[in-house]
Amino acid sequence: MLNDLRRITHNFVQEPNLELALGNLVSDIKACLNTDVCSIYLVEDKQRLLKLQASDGLNPKAVGKTVMRFDEGLTGWVAERGEPIKVHNATNHPRFKQFTDIEEDVYSGFLGVPIMHRRQVLGVISIQQTESRHFEQQEEAFLVTLSAQLASTFANVSIRLRNVGQDSAVDHSGLVLQGVSGASGIGIGHSYLVQTKIEFSDVSLKKVAAPEPEKARYFNAVEKTKADIIQMTQRMAEQLPKDALAIFDVYQQLLDAASLGNEIVDKINQGWCAVSALKIVSEHYVAEFEKMEDPYIRERAVDVKDLSRRLLEYLTVQQGVKPTVPHSAIVIAEEVTASMLAEIPREQIKGIVSLKGAENSHAAIMARALGIPAVMGLRDVPLLSLDDTDIIVDGYSGQVFITPNETIVEEYKKLESEDIAFTDLLKREADEFAQTLCGHRVSLYINSGMGFDSDIAEQQHIEGIGLYRTEYLFMMRQRFPSESEQQSFYQQVLADFEGKPVVMRTLDVGGDKQLPYFPIVEENPFLGWRGIRLTLDHPEIFLVQVRAMIKANLMTNNLHIMLPMICDVGEVDEANRLINQAFNEVRIEVLEADPNAKLIKPKVGIMIEVPSMLFQLDKLKGKVDFCSIGTNDLTQYLLAVDRNNDKVASLYDSYHPTVLAAIKRIADMTKDAGIPCSVCGELAGDPGGAMLLTGMGFTQLSMNTQNVLRVKWVLKKAQLECLEQLVEDVLHCNRPDQVKFRVNRTILNIGAASLLRAGK
Ligand code: PEP
Ligand code: MG
């Protein structure tokens, strides 16, 4: 059965023409389960309507025409209930409904399973039998497995339609992909793909009109790959025994025309582009080799995979020639990183699409900091299918429009200008400092690390930097930055904010923040070697960074040092010991050069983002000067929801009453302990979040520059008492949506409804 499942899914995914793919699928299922009919119905535009899309057995004229409601017939019942339904005598069943064009009244045995994706019904697969038939448990399990395996492909069926051959009658414009909102705003532009390493899963099959240029590209890639293999053989000749070197001969043979080569050229002659031809042939051979009993032959699958990947790289990356960045670029990558964005002039980036990640991934935080609309988590979309196309990124709804038609473009241009008008209004109405209607002051700081516009900070009366993520400096390099490099970088930041506090966080890598030169491969990166854990294990990295910070602070004296990912007081003690050591070393150096120099030890604080700290807050007295709540990580650890995983994005919510109760507890306990506590997670920059935090008693909030005006605006309209009441109220809620409802109701009541309108 496993083999049948593999074969059927493989056939379906391989066929780029959706109509044919669905046709093959129903025939394969019908043959495999030995039934009279197999049909597939897909939901029409979320309208609780099912349309017959393919059938082997029912009247072919009904395909593409017959539509039924969820409350009609047995198939509708499957969709309505969202679970498999087996009926051995369908025509006698009360839910049976006769659809005349389908001609199914002659069938008795019925088994239908829903196609479910992210809790939504996408369609129904049904099988039917002329005579009464009790379908077996195994048959039901088979269909359920197949449906679950294909669900994500069905979810993006529309993107596949786009790649049907040129003679297709399908209208490709206006396709919409649903992701997760990463940064609000509207981005209209042309795609710019930044590829790190292309995998075959990124490739969607495509046909082309002219085979000759494709053959030339393929031969070129073969020549380059052959040259690589010769080089590898020479390099390895002294290190590997002769029999091991034989593998490179196998590679050369596989590349020969008589082996894989001919078949690939054949596929190109049939109209496939070179990349598609390579994918079709190599996946076929890999599947064949993997089926073999003989372990030696089975191993060849690995060789074919490796070789094909090398060819793919040459076919997809034009060595040394970078495509020009479009004037209005929508940057698209498997996972967007700081260095990718740094290579493109900021004014050219109109939007970001990251196939991996979710609302509070660091890529999304970066996008928000830069004010670039972003959508995350389109993981089922083949990367290459987004190449060279017009795109609209709707950072509010998390939608991405591929080759949108004129009406959609016009609509979005209107929304874009409404956005600009709203920001102008916020600027006009902004007071110098943030305060509530009753005059209660809240100090606003910014989160930074990617470079910032100090003019904006000045104009918006920012009171300092509440979180400086130093890891970005590390992520943009090919090696760890030296002490003097770090010192001059930090010096600039501290000087830009002279007279105002700058909270610099020590290196916080791990999780979804990787250093290209220090890769950390772990099963559970967010529970692994992150933040302070890594730097305490590598005091040589920590000490260099802290020394650089302390030296950078000599002129300005506005540095605060903050430790990330602290999960117990022991780590605070150890970090304090190292900071004291670094401080004494710098002091000796400085006093040697200038005996009158005055060196002030910076304040040291910690991030509260690991739930264990909730139960150690009383032990922090005398050990830290301040703390700051990292709501991004606190949310993921309290709710056990990976902040980077779009599959659970709907469960990740800082408005969860548990998260809010934890934050309130921290507010109360740090107040009792006399430790100043601020909030620097993304919740602080969300206008509703800022209202809640102010109501809880926080007077220092740190956020990205883009949110400062919105937060000031909403606070200015609210009375402190009303915010305190709101907190009282939400702490009694059971679910995040109930909290959201109450927060939004307050936003409406205080006259800040514009924040809630679409596009705000
Ligand atoms: C947080 O976890 O809330 C935080 C501010 O740190 P980061 O997002 O960089 O992990
Ligand atoms: Mg964090």
From TrEMBL:
Keyword Protein biosynthesis: no
Family annotation (Pfam families): GAF, PEP-utilisers_N, PEP-utilizers, PEP-utilizers_C
Reactions catalysed, as given in the entry: L-histidyl-[protein] + phosphoenolpyruvate = N(pros)-phospho-L-histidyl-[protein] + pyruvate
Residue ranges constituting the GAF domain according to the UniProt record: 17-164
Signal peptide as annotated in the record: none
Residue spans crossing the bilayer: none
Keyword Cytoplasm: yes
Cofactor(s) needed by this chain: Mg(2+)
EC number: 2.7.3.9
Keyword terms: Cytoplasm, Kinase, Magnesium, Metal-binding, Phosphotransferase system, Sugar transport, Transferase, Transport
Domain of life the protein comes from: Bacteria
Broad class of where this protein is predominantly found: cytoplasm
Example GO molecular function: phosphoenolpyruvate-protein phosphotransferase activity
Membership in a protein family: Belongs to the PEP-utilizing enzyme family.
Name of the protein in question: phosphoenolpyruvate--protein phosphotransferase
Organism per entry: Psychrosphaera ytuae
